[in-house]
Amino acid sequence: MDKQPCVYILSSKPYGTLYIGVTSDLVGRLYQHRTDSIAGFTRRHAVHHLVRFEMFGSMEAAILREKQLKRWHRQWKINLIESDNPHWANLAPSIGLPALPPMDAETSSA
């Protein structure tokens, strides 16, 4: 996948901890999250599953969308994820990354 501005949402499990980020290299950034190579929120909370991403023509537009989504209520974010990904599938394989072990749906809470 070529470098392109993108907003992405990661989840620890269905209905679990969510993380919203912005990048111009989605594959590279997901690799960093998966390998816990950067200290921070996603490493502390094991947030590694890509459940939504949106591509943009400019980084400015992507940053504006990221800021918008971060202001949203949690339920709005869940509704957005489920509008295109109702089963909370990990979307990383669709952009060329290997699959992760399935998210544990039985311990999730809404």
UniProtKB/TrEMBL annotation:
Pfam families: GIY-YIG (PF01541). InterPro entries: GIY-YIG_endonuc, GIY-YIG_endonuc_sf, UPF0213_domain. SMART domains: GIYc. The keyword Nuclease applies. The keyword Nucleotide-binding does not apply. It comes from the Bacteria. Keywords: Endonuclease, Hydrolase, Nuclease. GO terms for molecular function: endonuclease activity. Residues 3-80 form the GIY-YIG domain. Belongs to the UPF0213 family. PANTHER family: BSL5627 PROTEIN (PTHR34477:SF5), UPF0213 PROTEIN YHBQ (PTHR34477). This is Putative endonuclease.
